Amino acid sequence: MHLEQLEYIVEIAKAGSLTKAAQNKHITLSAISQSLSSLEAELGVTLFSRSRLGAVPTSEGRIIIKKAFEALGKIQEIWEEAQNYTNTLSGELRLATIPGPMNLLVDAVASFKKDYPYIRTEIAEKGTQEILEDILQDKLDIGLVIIHENLLKKSEGLGLVFEQLLEGKMVVGVGKNSSLAYQDSVTPEELRKHSFVLYNDDYVKWFVEDFAATYGPVDILFTSNNTEALRNAIRQNLAVTIGLDYSFVHEPHLQDSDSITLDLDIPYQQPVYYGWVRSEERHYSRISMNFINRLQYDLKSKKYPPTP
């Protein structure tokens, strides 16, 4: 039995076919098929039922594949532990966050890179659905998204783990010269009299659609990831915007003397959090663990509102 054989059967189980597993591992179909046949002969157990539709683990195979996954995780832990002793933890960390809260990550990424110079860190802005798909396809290690009840329901059974970092609520951003600027809060009826500009985020879109279904249609001037465009529209009183409170407070397009935030006066807001997601089916590496610990410490030290 060889280590690569364990890696191959775990990949076949994830991919659902030998062809796709071979592509993911960058080897030939013949090589992965021969490796599987050799392991099955050595163990005396058929691990997969193979057909034109793909490869499905047998009842015995499911147990052995689970053991293989656990064994690979332990081997990875051994390498990481050894690197810790020599202070040369290396590898890569692939991150993605929803548009908006990137600024929450900058200091944590910078200090993490300083402490672990041999770790290659990639970070990108993507939509929630793309982040989840990339995690499931092993293109990302960690995704940072808005966690809410609807997302958790939609993600049931996908093998994803969600953890909360910050609790937030939806608030309204207006220009200092807006007719709303002297209020502490704004009602749905008052808000509907104004045009909206929205950050291009899945949860913001869902929230506004739900708001419109409950209180009546709203006029959306535009939706964009261009923070300068949003800022200009708010500053010139062409529109108001809506989003999570911590993004507004710390976002460059709202962190100036030309804009303020107001509470949204609605009877109930669904609990919503900024948090992280990873695959339950892949090893939670020490690299990822160390970065999340660093991010949690960084947010706490800056006194951003933590989860309860």
From TrEMBL:
Entry protein name: Transcriptional regulator
Record keyword Metal-binding present: no
Keyword annotations of the record: DNA-binding, Transcription, Transcription regulation
Organism this protein belongs to: Brevibacillus brevis (strain 47 / JCM 6285 / NBRC 100599)
Keyword tRNA-binding on entry: no
UniProt record similarity statement: Belongs to the LysR transcriptional regulatory family.
GO CC terms in record: cytosol
Family matches, as Pfam families: HTH_1, LysR_substrate
HTH lysR-type domain location: 1-58
One function term, GO molecular function aspect: DNA binding
Top-rank lineage group of the source organism: Bacteria
